TrEMBL record:
Molecular function GO terms recorded: ATP binding; microtubule binding; plus-end-directed microtubule motor activity
Keyword Phosphoprotein: no
Pfam families for the chain: Kinesin
Family matches, as Gene3D superfamilies: Kinesin motor domain
This protein's name: Kinesin, motor domain-containing protein
Native organism: Cynara cardunculus var. scolymus (Globe artichoke)
Amino acid sequence: MENTKSYQQRRVSLMPFSPTQMLWSAENGSGCNKDDKDKGVNVQVILRCRPFSEDDVRAKTPAVVACNEDKQEVIVTQNMGNKQIDKTFSFDKVFGPSSRQKDLYDQVVGPIVREALEGYNWTIFAYGQTGTGKTYTMEGEGGKAKNGEFHEDVGVIPRAVEQLFDTLEAQNAEYSMKVTYIELYNEEITDLLALDDKSKKPITLMEDGKGAVFMRGLEEELVRSADEIYHILQKGSARKHTAETLINTQSNRSHSLFTIIIQIKEHASDGV
Ligand code: ADP
Ligand code: MG
């Protein structure tokens, strides 16, 4: 968007978390406290803890994580010898195991989408060990019911795309929306939306001479409706499979990046 705000960059870090996982590495947990906000640091860190899976229950895994959504805190318990040590970590927001996709969307992502349409660049970054709920949070499962409502398991991306379309349509805006979907795996960038023969070649990072970095040959897919996004996500996710079969329980070292580019034409008061 051609206005000054477009140079602003903001970020939300979503940390999906399993209730059995230790949090010591996040000791400095929150990326944004009151002082940061005063200094204008536009980063928020949000923690989401998923519920126990059937495997966790079967293995009788003890719970070591307790979420306090009201105080935006996570309490992690560790047994050292016969001593129990509790540590508390603060975040900008905490979503416990019973939090719903819609709650996280309405409280965190809805406001971001509104700001994106005002010209701010936004990044939502989901970081966490394999199996903690990154894909569930960002993409989710389900789709739409016949009445047009989202299935309760639908995640951030389809909901955001729908909100973008709904808002732009309501404003009668002249706009276009394009998406890209890449995977970073083993230091190589793969275009998850490319046609088969093209996707075999890794994408190269190039500099444009003005200090910006771009990806040469990256496929940008035009999206005309929110429903198309399911097809695009499925198409891209199917390509991710080779990485996922090599899964190890710490990390499959695969990172995906889904980008939405919106262009809006605004008419100045003199009609130009
Ligand atoms: P990741 O992408 O981080 O490796 P997934 O999103 O694939 O992890 O989640 C692992 C499993 O846990 C999936 O079966 C997913 O459906 C389930 N899951 C993750 N988060 C939640 C949640 N908040 N509520 C219910 N199920 C969840
Ligand atoms: Mg995943």
